[in-house]
Amino acid sequence: MLGIDRYILRQMTVAMVLVTTGLTAILWLTQSLRFVEITVNRGASLGVFMELTLLVLPNFLTVILPVALFAVVLFTYNKLITDRELVVMRSAGLSHWALARPAVMLATANVLVSLVLNVWLIPYSVTKFHQLQWTLRNSATSVMLQEGIFNQVVPGLTVYVRARDTAGELLGVIIHDTRNPTRSVTMIAERGALLKGEGDNPKVLLINGTRQQVTRGSNRLSLLYFDNYAMEFSDGSASDSNRYRDARERPTWELFSATEAEVGPVNYRQFRVEGHQRLASPLYHFAFAFLAAACLLPGLFNRRGQADRLVLAIALMVLVQAMALGVSNIATRDLMFLPLIYLAPLLPVAGGVWALFSHLRRKPVMA
C-alpha cells in the first residue's frame, strides 16, 4: 500500500467511525423511545430495556453504513480538492483510479462487515428481539396493570384496577372476559393480586367479590359470590413456539431451502427476495463509494468549489436508494425480476468504473 493510500484511507476510516457512531447514537436514541411504553407499563427492568434497544442496533447498521460511507468518501475527496492536496497528488502522476483506491478498500471492508450482519447477526438479533418482546407481552412477571384505565391484557380480556397499594395489592378490580364465544363473564372484587401460574402464564387472585356469567343465546345471568377466586390471563397462545417467524428472523439457509408448498406462494416470494437481498445489499457499499469518487475525482479543478458535483452525487445516491426499494417491491410480486436485485447496485459500480478509467489520459486544467 502506498503512503498516499494510507493517508487517504486513514482520513476516511476516522471519519467513518465518527459518522457511524454519531448516526447510530441518534437512531438508537429515537428508536429506544418506542420501548419506554413496554418498560413503564409492563414493569420491565432497565436491563431488559437496554437489551431491547441493543438488539435493534444491527438493523440500524445496515442502513447507516452505506450512507455513512458515501458521506465520508464525498467529504474526504472534497476536502482534498479544497486544500489543493489532490492537485499535488495528480501532479505526482496518480491517476483517478489510484486516488479512488482507498475508497474501494474501505468499501470492501464495509462489504465484509455487512455480509456478517445480513447473513448471521441480524437474523439472530431479530429473533431474540421478537422472543423477548413476546415474553414481555405474555409472561406474568411483565404484566403491569395501569391504575384507573381499562387494560386489555389479551384479546377478549379487559381488566380495570382502581388503585394499587404500596405492597402491590390491587384494589377495586373489574375483569370482563369474552374469550369464550359461548359466554361472557364479569368479575368484581374488593382486592386482588397478580401471581405466576403454570407455564409462566399471568394469574390473578381475587378476594371478596362476585362472578356474573351470561350465556350467549339464552341471556341467562348466573351470579356467584366468592371469598377468593383465581383465574389465568393466558389466551392459550403465549407459547413462543406458536409464534410465526417472519422472513427477517429466519436463517439464510432456511430462506433458500423453503418450498412453496411448505410456506405458501406469498411467503415463498418474500423468503426468496429476503435471501437475495441479504447477499446483494452489501454491494451498495461499492455503488455509493464509486458514485462519490466518480463525481468528484474526474473533471476540471474549479476554484469556486465543487457544489455542482456534490449535488449531482447526492441526487444519484438518492436515485439508487429509490431504485433499490422499487426493485425489491417488483421482485416480491414476481420472482422473474430477482436478477434486478443484483443489477441495481452493480449499475452504479459499472458507471463509476467507466467514469474513472475514461479520464485516465486527460490532464486536469486549472479553471
Q: For the report, how would you describe the main beta sheet?
A: 6 strands, antiparallel
Question: Mean pLDDT across all residues, rounded?
Answer: 82
The total strand number stands at: 6
- SSE order: HHHHHHEEEEEEHHHHHH
- Biggest sheet: strands side by side, in what order? 1-2-3-4-5-6
Helical residues, percent:
55-70%
Shape type: elongated
Which class do the helix and strand fractions yield?
Answer: alpha+beta
In terms of per-residue confidence, which ranges show pLDDT below 50 for 5 or more consecutive residues? Answer: 363-367
What is the tally of helical segments?
12
Span between N and C termini?
32 Å
Q: Please compute the radius of gyration using only Cα atoms.
A: 29 Å
The overall number of domains is: 2
Task: Give the amount of beta strand, in percent.
Answer: 15-25%
Would you give an account of this structure?
This protein has 367 residues and is an alpha+beta fold. It has two domains: 3-138 and 244-358, no CATH class; 150-232, no CATH class. Helix content is 57%, strand content 17%. It starts with a helix and ends in a 9-residue tail after the last helix. Mean pLDDT is 82; it is low at 363-367.
Any descriptors?
single chain; 367 residues; six-stranded antiparallel β-sheet; 57% helix; elongated
Secondary-structure map:
Layout: H1 3-32, H2 36-41, H3 46-55, H4 57-82, H5 85-91, H6 96-138, E1 150-154, E2 157-164, E3 170-177, E4 183-196, E5 202-215, E6 220-232, H7 252-257, H8 260-263, H9 265-280, H10 283-296, H11 307-333, H12 339-358
Antiparallel strand pairs: 1-2, 2-3, 3-4, 4-5, 5-6
Helix pairs in contact: 1-4, 1-6, 3-6, 4-6, 4-10, 6-10, 9-11, 10-11, 10-12, 11-12
